[in-house]
Write a structure and sequence with these properties.
Layout lengths: L9 H9 L18 E5 L3 H12 L6 H14 L1 H6 L1 E5 H11 L8 H17 L18
Antiparallel strand pairs: 1-2
Helix pairs in contact: 1-3
Amino acid sequence: MAANTNKRIAVKWIRDRAKSAYEKQDHCYICNTQAELELHHTHSITTLVNAWAARMSYDISTDDGILAVRDEFIDTHRSELYDQVYTLCNRHHIQLHGVYGKTPMTGSETKQVRWIELQRDKIAGGGQPIPKTSSGSFFSQFT
């Protein structure tokens, strides 16, 4: 197998493949702005792929290694990649990661959702109601 000579980490190969199927909304789930939108995964893709590869005994330390199994990873973690996500503006995305860190811990997904909903409710309470059904988020069914 070819060594990962270009220093490309496994998660980037996953994102490259998965990106075409992302359904980013046209506004921030929290504040409804349409500027500087980003997709937030409540599950850290890096953490997921590393734990999955270890569980499956896959070597993803090389480009060839991750390329050989990335479609299997995407199929296995379809919900975490495509459903359990939020479209956020850059400002709210940075704020969320300021609270939960660059790579949020496994198990913090529900807390992240609660934080997102709380921020949304704060804005809605300020006279800017936002329909909760507009996110396209997996988690909106629980609120």
